[in-house]
Amino acid sequence: MRHLLSIEPLTREEIERILDRADSFAEVSGREIKKVPALRGRTVVNLFYEASTRTSSSFELAAKRLSADVVSVRSAGSSVDKGESLKDTVQTLSAYDPAAIVIRSPHVGAADLVARWSPAAVVNAGDGKHEHPTQALLDVYTLRRRLGSLEGRSIWIVGDVAHSRVARSNVLAFRKLGADVTVCGPPTLIPREFEALGCKVAYDLDAGLSGADVVYALRMQRERMTEAFVPSLREYAARYQIDARRLHPRQLLMHPGPINRGVELAAEVIDSPQAAIVAQVQAGVVVRMAVLYELLANAPQPFPMPNAQRPTPQPA
Amino acid sequence: MTLSRMPTPPASVLIAGAHVLDPRAGHDEILDVLVRDGEVAELGKDIAPPAGVELVDAAGAHLFPAFVDPHVHLRVPGQEHKEDLETGTRAAAAGGFCAVIGMPNTSPPIDSASVLRSVRELAEAHARVPVGFLAAATVGQRGESLTEMAELRDAGALGFTDDGLPIASANVLRRALQYQRLCGGVVALHEEDPTLSGDGMMHEGSVSALLGLAGIPSISESTMIARDAAIAAYEEGRVHVQHLSAAESVQAVAAAKAAGVRVTAEVTPHHLVLTHEDVRTLDTALKFNPPARAERDRTALVDALRDGTIDCVATDHAPHAPHEKEVPFEEAPMGTTGLETAFAALNTFLVEPGVLTLDLVVERMTAGGAHFGLPEPRIAVGAPANLALVGLDRAWQPIEAGYESRSENCCFHERELRGRVLMTVAAGAIAYRERSFALSAA
Questions:
Q1: What is the pLDDT of residue A81?
Q2: Nearest Cβ partner of A109 from B205, B210, B282?
Q3: What are the structural domains, with CATH classification, of chain B?
Q4: CA atoms within 13 A on the CB side of B105
Q5: How far apart are CA A220 and CA A161, in angstroms?
Q6: What is the pLDDT of residues B171-195, one digit of tens each?
Q7: What is the pLDDT of residue B441?
Q8: Which residues of A touch B323 (CB under 8 A)?
Q9: Cβ contact B329–A85 (<8 Å)
Q10: Which of A67, A125, B87, B389 is the most exposed place for a label (fewest CB within 10 A)?
């Protein structure tokens, strides 16, 4: 694997190899010194064009625990603010000869473009409403730890599917690992022909949710109200909020964060034993370590910088 | 004279041994065509080359009446970094076109007689093939108040359009069609309901669902066609629907024609060949408006072109500079170039597989100007020479061959195409010769 741009082209075997690697890094994370020297001397650039707390911090932590040097660039206060194009920014950062570029962008396909414009390995940390592949991998990792296998499990993804890159990556990843996936939300927030991703579509949560093994709630953004997608948050919560009445004790609850308490999730379920939300965050670091390791540990340095002064080995 | 071109000496040339195909004139055989002083002087077998006439050995090639494109963006004034009158008309000549009609969505828009006169003056200095212009229908293309349509007609406007944008207000379109009774000039319509297309980037369907891109539903086009056909019927106006993209739109045009509305319609090669599946790669050269839609839409367009519901082919040639297109898909401007690949794309993807006949493609590619009052090119003795000499089985790849256009945002850039224009004669003058095409003087 050269880049991680989306879940779509991955095979089940490739996904499982990353999850197995993440398992081995989980063991490292339990140690007092949580660092391995796998990427010593390599540079990882985090290029974030959107606000992010958990994704950017966990990528940074993952790279540091692999002993890489990390540079984080955020759009605010950078040359991006001064009108520099993505291509020029990528070429500028590529001059530092990074081993990997992690990119979060509000635009679909941005990671693919970075992969075209830079010799570095590229990790998509979210491109518009398209995909968020490391989120899907950490969710699958979390589920595998809790359930053993996803094969034949019923997973309901509930909420604003239309505006969610997490929904797209997760439907694809869950399907590849053998789960049965249903997306459920207001008809205005589920794209036409979404079944093409291999899932079922439902609009009535109460009619089918009881059959789910896993309930995956999506973030409901407040601005959707002003765009006439739903009449009110009150009506949305009445129909689609996951609360103690709807969540069965044998069901597992997940959410990609950040949570709108009292909108998509009621307070009582967030703190319930069924919630795997904190486990998801913990999985974020080890899964992203596994992704960086997968792309970089065995890959040759893309090419040495011309004229770079590299230390010559001294005779012993 | 409503067409403008740089002064060009009339051609005297004998095109010998080509397969002459002109569905209107009824030619479909190997003939020699003698052009003298810019007119077709003689058609026949084994014409002896008169002294002083250049001989073109065209054995194995096809000779068509040259194509007419009723919909191109020449970007003058204001966006000369994308295209200008010279490069745009060089592209037209390289595509076998003998006349093109430029759209007014320039910067500033062609919405007053003074802007129109200045653009025509530039065309008289730089255009390699004759160019006509549509003027904006509303001031600034803002969709609010009518342009000085009568003065614009006097200044040479072939018609009116706010192309690039719809005329969103039904009342403004109604007023334009009422005023049309005074000044004439077809009103060409970019049909899109902005409340339905919103911030859409591509066809709304399975691919937009997968990519997470906002979709442009088919109904954003078809509902506007239905609305505007009703307005045109009521005012007995003459309208032309631009760049049809959806099966529902074909139905709306067919219904309007059946009801006697004075409406014609055009379709682009890219809508006849590509679908939203091709947009999966997020190649920004495939971002255009209206978008490439589903296979059922594409086949409906092909069927409609065949049965005459759609009257003509137009390229909607829309050049953009590399730095404007080398950005994420959502940031890229809409548009693909099309002049240089139009015939080859239709020949490769529709004629060769037997979906459309060569006759029909030639007829529809030469029909677009007539709806705006331009004469149809024809290969007949006494007619001005408007000829496209084409090597039908010549294979080429646009990205390899390069472009005459200033821009390279061609949706067929990596496709293997067959059918190469070897020479174009436009309004009696040689406008283009392929560089490698061998010529010999008599």
A1: 65
A2: B282
A3: 13-63+383-441 (2.30.40.10), 67-372 (3.20.20.140)
A4: 20
A5: 9
A6: 999 999 999 999 999 999 999 999 9
A7: 41
A8: 85
A9: no
A10: A67
Inter-axis angle of helices A12-29 and A165-176, to 10 degrees?
Answer: 100
Q: Residues for chain B: how many in total?
A: 442
Q: Sign (positive/negative) of CA torsion B220, B221, B226, B229?
A: positive
Å between B201 CA and nearest CA of chain A: 11
Residue contact B213–A130, C-beta within 8 A? yes
Confidence grade of residue B134 (pLDDT, cut at 50, 70, 90): very high
**The CA-based dihedral angle spanning residues A109, A114, A116, A118, taken in that order and rounded to the nearest 10 degrees:** -170
Q: CB of B238 within 8 A of CB of B213? A: no
Per the listing, tokens 């939203």 go with B276
Mean pLDDT confidence for B87-96: 98
Q: What residues of A are in contact with residue B282 (Cβ under 8 Å)? A: 108-109, 112
- Asked if residue A305 belongs to a domain, the reply is no
Helix (H, G, I), strand (E, B) or coil at A311: coil
Number of domains in chain A: 2
Q: What is the CATH number of the domain that holds A53?
A: 3.40.50.1370
Q: Please check whether residue B271 is in contact with residue B249, taking contact to mean a CB–CB distance below 8 angstroms.
A: no
Judged by DSSP in three states, A263 sits in: coil
Kindly report the average pLDDT of chain A as a whole number: 91
- The verdict on a CB contact (< 8 Å) between A193 and B206 is yes
Q: Which of A108, A192, A197 sits opposite B328 (nearest CB)?
A: A108
Looking at every residue in chain B, the average pLDDT score rounds to 96
In this structure, the answer to whether residues A137 and A177 fall within a common structural domain is yes
CA distance A258 to A84: 30
Interface test with A, best of B280, B329, B331 (most A CBs within 10 A): B329
Here the tokens at position B381 are 């003795």
- pLDDT for position B435: 76
- Å between B296 CA and nearest CA of chain A: 15
